[in-house]
Amino acid sequence: MNIKLFDSELKVMNVLWREGDATAKHISDVLKAEVGWNVNTTYTLIKRCIKKGAIERSEPNFMCHALIPKEEVQESETNELINKIYDGSADKLFAALLGRKKLTAEQIERLKQIVGEFQ
Amino acid sequence: MSLLQMSISGAVLILFILFIRAVAVNRLPKRTFLILWWITILRLLIPVSVPSALSVYSFLERTAAHSGQTPIGNVMAMMQGETPAFTGELLNVPVSPISAPFAIWLAGTLFFAAFFSISYLRCRLEFSMSLPVQNVFAEKWLKDHPLTRSISIRQSDRIFAPLTYGILQPVILMPKTTNWKDTRQLQYIFLYEYIHIRRFDAAAKLIAAFALCVHWFNPLVWGMYLLFNRDMELACDESVVRLSGETAKKDYALMLIHMEAKKSGFMPFCNEFSKNAVEERITAIMKTKRPPMAAILISCLTVFAAISIFATSAAAPPNTAASHTPFATETGTDKGKTGADAENSMSIIHESVELLYYENGWPYLHDILTNNTDRTITEMEYCMLAYDEHGTPLKLYWNFFDSSQEQSYDYLARIDGLRIAPHETADYHGGWSLYDGEAMENWPVIGNGERNQVAYSLFCLKQVVFEDGSTWNNPHYSQWFETYAGKEVRPEELRNYYPYRYGIE
Fold this sequence. Notes:
heterodimer; A: mainly alpha; Arc Repressor Mutant, subunit A; two-stranded parallel sheet; 5 strands; elongated; B: alpha+beta; 5-stranded antiparallel sheet; 16 helices; 15 strands
């Protein structure tokens, strides 16, 4: 088993590891107090964890059960999901506006040169 | 003002700003460009024309008049003539329910609106999953920089560089990789984002995106959108450097490069546009200095020029009343242009209305009408006005067969049973009979029985009914009526009034 989770997803898992099985409502209450997420944010994250196979959902009351122990989880390497978020074609433009584009090594060298020139 | 007119005058303004930007981006305070872009956005979104004698459009108008061309009531109308694909239909966006160009425009607008909304919401969703930050320096910094809106600082493992989101509840989002011990760097980052927040740049980006959605067909508006976003960054950098002192320039520039370098560590692909943008940014930072008085003056002048010359429309020429302009546009431009363009749009033309006499000397008004639509005209309603040779309006017994009828300046006639086929010019015998106390000796005397004074007559269609049952109502009718009914008109204008063209969409 090799599940990669983001910080935000780990926060959700932490609640389950700490308190055992809990309803989605309970998780969202805890996280509301802890990190200030609203219900939708927490539910979205629970759904993502379910999709990744880290949480199992059972009825009634949207009971959540952690499928993996804390030790098995490793932190995700950021760039994979960054690709997902920012590299989707629709988001490229937005990303460009936010100024989140990457430079090559030569370009960085050139920029440092510019700074040097104005010294 | 139509959407296309707004887009074109916006485009002229953008070209002006592009020029100023190319020449003096690092010589003028960056705020100048933000103000200029705001003027452009307002021009693009607010359909009000502000007449100004200084306007470039007034100038064009005068030049045209001097060089002996057809008088142009409105340069915009002329420019539209050059792009027939968009003409007419787009102009009538609010009136015509669904024409092809309107449908294309609407589809594009909805597409881009959906595109931006989805990207925006996706980013917001990701950002909302960020985690709070417990950091003494951050908390102290926030306390030292209060704002009516409360700012919070959060962190996320899904971004590479700091950013800000939220308009009413702004959040500074830091990447997980932030080095919280480097307070110097943190100070620059917070200050930079703080200035963005204080200036409501997040809202500005949304408004600019809205303008882009509406004007998506205008490539210059895309340019404006990108540069406006860039100039917000530049203006922000400028403030950071000014607030942190001249010596901070190098530090700050190197920090930005360092952050860019970190980003590229993960995703080594380059982007030409962005490369130039970053280079421009770094250069701008290094060139930042307290602007000399001259730069501030030039900056103010530029803004003033942009407002008074490009953001306004032509002033009404001094001798003719302002209300004449719409008609001058309609008749003037179309008279000047024949052939292809006139054929492209459908129209009905009043070729002429003349005073003629029957063999017995009884006067009548003879009108000739051309049907340039694709449907047969079966019925029409039009208003008639009469003037003497000096252009004085005349009160007539228009319907003198009916002795109970009063005198009036205007008379609304409705004729049915017509058959004017598409592209037919209906020239018939006879016309509208007028009373003439001298010529009509055997006729019962009406009024004081004086002879006919009419020298000119103006006809204006109010409504046309076609064979297929559809009708066309002249949208300019009431304007026409107000302009001419009972009013003195120069004989020269009366002589040159025809052909009068009615554009039909």
